[in-house]
Amino acid sequence: MFFAGLSASHLLAIFGAAGALVVLFYILKLRRRPIAVPFSNIWHRVLRDKEATTLFSQLKRLLSLLLQLALLALLVLALGDPRLTRSPTEGRSIVVLVDGSASMKATDVAPSRLEVAKEKVRELVRGMSGADRMLIAQMDASLRPLSTMSDDPSELEAAVDALAATDTRADLARGLRFAQDSLAGLGKSEIVIVSDGAFGDVEATTRGLELRDTDVRYVPVGARAKNVAITGFSVRRYPLDKSRYEVMLEVANTTDAPLDVELTLLGDGQVVDVTRLALGPNERVPRYYKDLGGANRTLEAVIRLGDGTPDDLPADDHAYALMPERRRARVLAVTPGNTYLEATLLLDDYLDVTTVTPASYPPPGTFDVTIFDGVAPPLAKTGGAALYFDPPDTPSAPVERGKAITGFGFDTWDRKSPILRFLAMGDIQVANGFALEPKREDRVLGASDLGPILVSGRRDGRKFVALGFDPRNSDFVLRVAWPLFVLNTINDFVEEDTSYLSSYRTGEVWRIPAPSNAETATLEDPLGRRHTIPVKEGHAVYFGDQAGFYQLSTGSGAEATTLRFAANLSDLDESRIAPVAELALGKEPLARPSGFRPGVRRELWLYLLFGALALSTLEWVTYHRRLTV
């Protein structure tokens, strides 16, 4: 036997001090009971009690003192938490990995898969032996331990209560590596996975993971898998008409039976479109909505079964997107006169354009973008980002001129760049211009066989784009690509990407644009919780695990800024919620946990407390029957 609580020496000291007090109080106690007597002979007994002043007289009823000392001994032993085994390492060390991914929000078992899983973990806790120890961890895209390696049922029950599902997928390999590290050096190690088994390709994710000398068990959760999902959702404004927008989304039927669904699109909370779709078994269907209007900021998509009944997983029935704010950009055009450029800048109603000659530069005011047409003076601090057409060979130009070239065009261009995406640049013919010589950190967006002719980068922390020829010396200005190139460049400078604007994806580390002078930011998540997060190099860093709309706030007073953005689950594998009854980490399926017997714990302190209670009841009965004093 050993003591898991206080040591034997401490227990002896406590018992000695407390026992001395009990004996002292017993000696000092002289309590006579009032007794009504009908004759005088009884007074002789009372007089004899008065003479009982010696130690022997006070202890003549030892039964009462022995009962009190026995009661004290039981209480002191309970403080020591005695165990029958010789060492706590003789029990099992158990790590319970509880799946906290989005699929555990499924309601095919009432009230949800996670709540059923929590009850199963509580049964494991109640079934531990007195020498067992357990650690409970939540396993989703990250791994979060909720308790220490403990044998305290109250701590483990609190850990179970803290379990909460997120809108992410479960990383089984990470969970197993954490469990293996937690059990390193401990005998009789055991891992228990409590999950619906919706891990995707388990063999691929756990390949190379060796669980030596560790017994892995599996507790399945879930009953069925009737689910439809929104697996993709994004929106963009039209470059030339920012009051209009288009939406792309994808819906999926993850069941093996055909289903009718109703898809609703909402803009700023108002219904924009309702569509009924017939989805085949395991079918994915893209949907495009073109030339929409009536929404300024928020878009939401909602899918439900055609008969109006809910499916088994509400977490992927809703998707969110936030359109870029339609703020007016301040543009300065420094040009001796360029009709093509001035006409292009008139196409966008959300541009405040100021035109000056090179001799009048810089004018008063602050600008988001400056366009230099054939000139490259030093960029003013209030000039923002810069677009250069045919920059001259001056020290203030962002890139140096190379050799003069003639009769060329765009032989290659970066189709993934937000400036050139969806633009047909291959047919442009240029009479003459110059090859550019970018620096190592610059990016070549377009080039001819004779050298780079379109370069982007940063100078002094500000973006620039340089075109190596005068557009009027080409047919570029006569093509549709010309106004799109100019407007796309302006939009890229003011961080309004005209490509499809996907929401952040849950289960990843987000880098959210924030003022570079801020050190921290306050993030309010869709559940209304506020988080203080760090800002590094102009981006707030946060691991997102909930879908919905977020709000990021920095600064205070006049320097306060607020940014809203959206996040979505958008994970087809996580929407496939068919429960797995037999989970295999190799050739053989995992067995169920054993050795857990609810209601039976070999913790003697519980029985010692019950004994103390019984002994106290015995003393009460004997006292009132006048057998003890």
What gyration radius follows from the Cα positions, in whole Å? 38 Å
Task: Estimate the global geometry from the Cα principal axes.
Answer: elongated
Find the structural class using helix and strand composition.
alpha+beta
Name the beta content range.
25-35%
Instruction: Detail the poorly predicted runs.
Output: 52-60, 496-501
**Tally of helical segments:** 12
Count of β-strands: 32
Helix content: 10-25%
Largest sheet: 8 strands, mixed
What topology, given as strand order, has the largest sheet? Answer: 16-15-17-18-24-23-22-20
The end-to-end span amounts to: 36 Å
**What do the pLDDT scores average to?**
85
Layout of strands and helices, then pairs:
Elements: E1 2-3, H1 8-28, H2 43-50, H3 55-58, H4 62-80, E2 82-83, E3 93-99, H5 113-126, E4 133-139, E5 143-145, H6 153-161, H7 172-182, E6 189-195, H8 202-205, E7 215-220, E8 228-238, E9 241-253, E10 259-267, E11 270-279, E12 284-292, E13 298-305, E14 318-322, E15 329-334, H9 339-345, E16 351-356, E17 369-373, E18 385-389, E19 400-408, E20 412-413, E21 430-437, E22 443-448, E23 451-459, E24 462-467, H10 481-493, E25 501-502, E26 504-505, E27 508-513, E28 520-524, E29 530-536, E30 539-544, E31 548-554, E32 561-568, H11 572-575, H12 604-624
Parallel strand pairs: 3-4, 3-6, 6-7, 15-16, 15-17, 17-18, 18-24, 26-32
Antiparallel strand pairs: 1-2, 4-5, 8-9, 8-25, 9-12, 10-11, 10-13, 13-14, 19-21, 20-22, 22-23, 23-24, 27-30, 28-29, 28-31, 29-30, 31-32
Helix pairs in contact: 1-4, 4-12, 5-6
